[in-house]
Amino acid sequence: MPDIRVKICGLKEPAHIAAAAEAGAAYVGFNFVEKSPRYVAPAVARMLAADTPVGVAKVALTLNASDADLDALVGEVPLDMLQLHGDEPPARVAEVKARYGLPVMKAVGIAGAEDLPALDTYAAVADQLLVDAKPPKAGDLPGGNGLAFDWRLIAGRRWPVPWMLAGGLTAETVQAAIELTGATQVDLASGVETAPGVKDAGLIRSFMAAALG
Questions:
Q1: CA–CA dist 84, 75 (Å, integer)
Q2: How buried is 177 (Cβ within 10 angstroms: 0-12 exposed, 13-18 middle, 19+ buried)?
């Protein structure tokens, strides 16, 4: 079985950064979408980033952010990667990469086979793909909705850049998801929470143990 790299997203407290890192997370995610229950202000994220051990990648989740927004964010928070989780077109992904010199991960929502071509399109410009469940049409949040998609849609598929599986993963489902899709990276937010935006160190440890085998 390949080594699995895990991203715990939407972290807001030093204790949960520590729990994720100690359990073997490869990435920690900070959510800068103000309407999300996982939102952190840049000043808070700067402190959390300082608490993140060397070797754990610090990822900023943004949603259709402007250059001004990203300038302020990158200027204040020491980041290793930008995650674009809105409807940014491929040209915008390329612009962000060129402007900030940071790796860019593009989230692509999947509900049916008709959504799969977008993965090939974005693989041509992004450094990584986040293959996530498409949010509900009436929903306010681009991710973190605790929803999964039909993993069979991407079983055996590969792209020319690294990719990460997201969408409703829990300690109980992550191994099945890995086995079916062949994912070597997984991402979650709500699956280690006791309420929206409220992480639990025990759930983080349980998920990491299940994911890493």
A1: 17
A2: buried
Distance from C-alpha of 53 to C-alpha of 87, rounded to nearest angstrom: 32
Place of tokens 């899709």: 181
| Cβ-contact 75, 49 below 8 angstroms | no
Quick one: 5-212 is in which CATH superfamily?
A: Aldolase class I (3.20.20.70)
Domain locations in the chain? 5-212
Q: What is the tens place of the pLDDT at every residue in 76-116?
A: 999 999 999 999 999 999 999 999 999 999 999 999 999 99
* Tokens 């840049």, located at residue: 42
- Dihedral pair phi/psi, residue 142, rounded to 5°: -75, -20
SS (H, E, C) the chain: CCCCEEEEECCCCHHHHHHHHHCCCCEEEEECCCCCCCECCHHHHHHHHHHCCCCCEEEEEECCCCHHHHHHHHHHCCCCEEEECCCCCHHHHHHHHHHHCCCEEEEEEECCHHHCHHHHHHHCCCCEEEEEECCCCCCCCCCCCCCCCCHHHHCCCCCCCCEEECCCCCCCCHHHHHHHHCCCEEEECHHHEEECCEECHHHHHHHHHHHHC
Q: What does the pLDDT look like over 17-48, one tens digit per residue?
A: 999 999 999 999 999 999 999 999 999 999 99
